[in-house]
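User: Round two. Same drill as before: sequence, then structure, for each protein.

Assistant: Same drill it is. First protein:
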Amino acid sequence: MQHRLVVLLFICSSACGPSAVVPDAPPSTIPTSPAGAFALTGVLDLEVLPPPADALVAELQDATDGPDDPAQFLCDRLVAALPSGWQAIAAGVADDVVAPYLETELDAVAPSFANGIRSLAAGVGDLAHHAQTIETLEVQPSGYATRTITGVAYGATTIDFASDGISDAIATTTVTLDVAGNLQLAEHRIALPYGRLLRLGFDRQVIPNVDLSATDLAGALRDLVDCAQLGALFAEKVGVGTANMYEVACNAGMAALAADIYNQFAAIDAAPMEFAVAGTALGVDIDGDGTMDEIENGLWSGTSSYADTAAPLVDATFAGTK
């Protein structure tokens, strides 16, 4: 009997061995609470632009889109800036004689004007269609949330609202989180000073790409057109008036063009640019404490509207971290 007991104990100890240790399950990456403060970055792609923005791009394109441009455009701007008594005298000669001759002399008078204006127009178009937003999202345990846009980025240029005296764009909404970590932001409206942001992006992002030494459009145009040479050419071909008079008119014409473009930027903000959007995203709990740490795969759906005309948003995305 004793022998059989020893054998049984030996068999159990050999076959059964120590109890298996079950490792702890890894913490879940699905949050149970969306509460927290998050830094968001977003992307806005606008398919349809406000009419004033389209008109602004068209005016810049007008300098090079005619068969006789940019020579005819430069002549027209110079003549328009002459004293009224001289405009009628110079206009006919400018169209029939000066513009055709200037076309052959552009390499001396304005070698970079055509390409520069095309780059400016293309740059405005890019800014108008595409921007990155810099935001915060604060979510209370109840789900009440505040979304605040504090700046925008155009390429490598960041515009911080506080630094430029622009009020933050603020909207309130509600946030819900389901058991799979899917995040829903209820529809809300938020407005941006679209024209002012375009102007800042134009001066800081587009202008330096055309003229590194210029800080605004007036400075870029002064560098793109040699008004002294153009004034001398006018005086020679018109046959009356001094080279200095035409040079002054050339400079005045370029300054007027710059002022007109900037006035169009400002006029955009006569009506609000407003976004009516709802958001979906995935909430992620990185440290397993039950609260959301990251917001991934965010997508805004809704419309952008200007002066009561709405257009659907395309490729409006966002992501964030706590």
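Second protein:
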Amino acid sequence: MLRVSSSVEYAARIMARLASGDQPAPLSAERISSDENIPRDFVDQLLMRLRHAGLVSSRRGARGGYRLAKPSREITVGDIVKAVEAGIFLPVCGRYTEGPSRCTRKAACRIRPVWARLGELIEGHLGGVPLSELNERAR
């Protein structure tokens, strides 16, 4: 079963909130935490990652907060996942490159192409879903 981490879920919710457009001023981390019911420390960590990825910008001060760094139609769900996780899809084979469980069957592995194709499909799909679409679907 494929699982979406809480980091990805929360980051997508944060980004959808910033993209909602119902708040013309930047949103504070405290407001995002309250509105989305996400622990404040987690919001701070995710906003830092999203800012480093160039997806959000921040402004300090009384009128400060966070906003999208570019239009929501130019940000994809794939961009959000890549900002908070090591990658969109980490194939099973990647877990067995070192150590006592190291896979020695790479060249002869029959299932490896299946995992590689699944990764391509997932990345292709998430890379084609713009953030703007998340709020359109909610309406």
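The mean pLDDT is 86.

User: Perfect.
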